[in-house]
Amino acid sequence: MQSPLLAHTAGTGTDRFALQNPQMLRVSLDGQSKVLARSGAMVAHVGKVAFTSWSPQTGNRRGPRRDAGVLDMMSCSGTGTVYLANLAQHLHVLSLRDERLVVTNSYVLALDTSLAWHTVAIENGDRIAGVGSRCLEFSGTGSLVLMTSGRPLVLPVEPGRYVYGDADAVVGWSSGLEVQLQAQSSNTEAWRRRGTATEGWELAFTGRGHVIVQPSELLPPRRVPRG
Fold first, then answer.
1. 184-201 core/surface letters (b: 16 or more CB in 10 A; e: else)
2. Residue 39 belongs to a domain with what CATH number?
3. CB atoms within 10 A of CB 222
């Protein structure tokens, strides 16, 4: 059989996390350490690999408290290669070196077990159901893999200059930034995405750091339960 399709062969390398292509992650397991991945994100694997459900009670308890129910993750262990993806979203590998980053939990695909996280509060975040509980601050040293709907935009934030982003388009931001949820419009008849009054709400950032924004105002669809 001959086809350009056959050129899309598996990549090689020993990096823990590497991009097979912009929309697929390749994870190398060495038989010693585990990685955490979004439940249901495995699309293929090679070698002797085990996938088990993960919870804060059974996982690594070092560092800040890990909030139960905030991340729906599975543990990947063994020796081999695992390929992860989610609805062909664009993937991004971030290396944290004793740093902190705030991310909306829906955009997390995978991470090293060495990282810790906890929920962070947003001023006025309780005005939209779920906004406060969806924002997680990751800390420590290790890799964190994020996914976005399309190629993202990274905006610098400088003191004395506000940066605004749609509440559903913001993926994450530098820890230490001051963040406030505020209304874009007083129009109460605005279209309500996902059954919530999130249209017309934006996040305002000030301080020094960066904001990651995706070219979409919708969160990635949830994994469909198998009935």
1. eeeeeeeeeeeeeebbbb
2. 3.60.160.10
3. 10
Is residue 97 a part of any domain in this protein?
yes
C-beta of residue 142 within 8 angstroms of C-beta of residue 162: no
In the block, tokens 């230490």 appear at: 176
Instruction: Tell me if 204 sits within 8 A of 167, measured CB to CB.
Output: no
pLDDT tens per residue across span 160-176: 999 999 888 999 999 99
Kindly state whether residue 226 falls inside one of the protein's structural domains: no
**DSSP-derived secondary structure letter, 219:** P
12: number of Cβ within 10 Å: 9
Please say if the pLDDT value at position 31 is more than 80. yes
Taking only the tens place, the pLDDT of each residue in 83-102 is 999 999 999 999 999 999 99
Enclosing domain of residue 124: 13-213
As for how many domains the chain has, the answer is 1
d(CA 214, CA 192) in angstroms, rounded, equals 19
Does residue 65 register a pLDDT over 90?
A: no
Which of 221, 209, 92 has its CA nearest to residue 151? Answer: 92
**Distance between CA atoms of 179 and 129, rounded to whole angstroms?**
17
pLDDT reported for residue 193? 45
Question: Which of 73, 82, 149, 137 minimizes the C-alpha distance to 111?
Answer: 73
